[in-house]
Amino acid sequence: xxxxxxxxxxxxxxxxxxxxxxxxxxxxxxxxxxxxxxxxxxxxxxxxxxxxxxxxxxxxxxxxxxxxxxxxxxxxxxxxxxxxxxxxxxxxxxxxxxxxxxxxxxxxxxxxxxxxxxxxxxxxxxxxxxxxxxxxxxxxxxxxxxxxxxxxxxxxxxxxxxxxxxxxxxxxxxxxxxxxxxxxxxxxxxxxxxxxxxxxxxxxxxxxxxxxxxxxxxxxxxxxxxxxxxxxxxxxxxxxxxxxxxxxxxxxxxxxxxxxxxxxxxxxxxxxxxxxxxxxxxxxxxxxxxxxxxxxxxxxxxxxxxxxxxxxxxxxxxxxxxxxxxxxxxxxxxxxxxxxxxxxxxxxxxxxxxxxxxxxxxxxxxxxxxxxxxxxxxxxxxxxxxxxxxxxxxxxxxxxxxxxxxxxxxxxxxxxxxxxxxxxxxxxxxxxxxxxxxxxxxxxxxxxxx
Length: 450
Ligand SMILES: Cc1ncc(COP(=O)(O)O)c(C=O)c1O
What we know:
By secondary structure, the chain is an alpha/beta fold. It has helices at 7-18, 34-46, 49-56, 60-67, 79-84, 103-117, 132-144, 160-167, 190-198, 220-233, 290-304, 309-319, 323-346, 375-386, 415-435; strands at residues 21-22, 127-130, 150-155, 171-180, 185-188, 202-208, 236-240, 266-271, 284-287, 359-363, 388-389, 391-392, 406-410. The chain has an 8-stranded mixed sheet, with helices on both faces. A 3-stranded antiparallel sheet has the order 10-13-12. Strand 3 (150-155), helix 8 and strand 4 (171-180) form a beta-alpha-beta unit.
């Protein structure tokens, strides 16, 4: 089986090894959403629903009384000792729970989906809580298809799709998005997609919008086109929506099950990883038309049993937040996008600003110091000599050489981290232009290395 450690994670290892600013893997270095964290803590400490509720509103006075601490000594209690008073001997939330997800989380997912898209999936019949979108995708591939089945994948794409397809014996049919610099977007070649979808072996189309790595946000016309192909050729759509809140410049994320005839043929994969800034929590969900749910849950149960119980409680608090929270996510990333787009252009990269998600897929061939390199050489040069970790663009392609001019930069880091990366690029790449010396080791770090 042709599956290796993902290159994205390998670049993270190299970033650590070389003390580089890590813009390779798509996770933030900023704190997760506090409601999420606090609810997870309350569930872990409380252990039962009744106690968790008590803890949620407990005052310092009550905690100190329970701890038997009075007067000045109370001020010297550590937080650890103080919170020990919140525990009870009975526990349910640190134990196994329903394999397909806590009822309250499935209820929260249903409400959240309805608030955002006006459609309420049935928590009993259509929602399965999984270990992040990664497991959601894998469970869908494994449960809904047979080895040898084809899946249409739009490249460049997250390396997960072809790798997981290989694990489950599925055959990716790649179609290629092409950068249209004049229009400032990436385009689907509709003839190519039509031909791929008409292949009798093809059983599904994988959709990812907003897309990693190009940032493309599929519009109503493009999604209608995909929906029409799915209906015509009786295909499922598996849609990865984890960047649903990260859309810029008036673009909107549209919900594929809302398109004609798609409610019964769309599998939606989502997670709190990006929305809650909690990629390490591994909480996600899959919405399936009811007829596929039992099979998906069976695969999930047999492979991983369940997602962590207390963290599911935390996810409830995140998904129950109001629209203002979700609506505000994009603005922070827009500022970061603009910062990095500006920094990359300054040193010679050609960049189409992404419409959504949090990656820049930038053409490095216009950077004099990198112009003659392959993507891997350029990425190695940047991580070893300049001190910035990226991902070689060809990693996101299954066929052809369209990726040979691109590097992917993640801009989901703090502004300080992005600023440090920009400074290093300026120092490393402008200096190499000036000295015409591409092997000069970089100077002292202008910021913390991550
Ligand atoms: C498009 C896409 N899908 C899935 C994932 C993995 O998501 P999760 O952390 O929910 O497994 C990523 C992570 O970067 C991604 O970019």
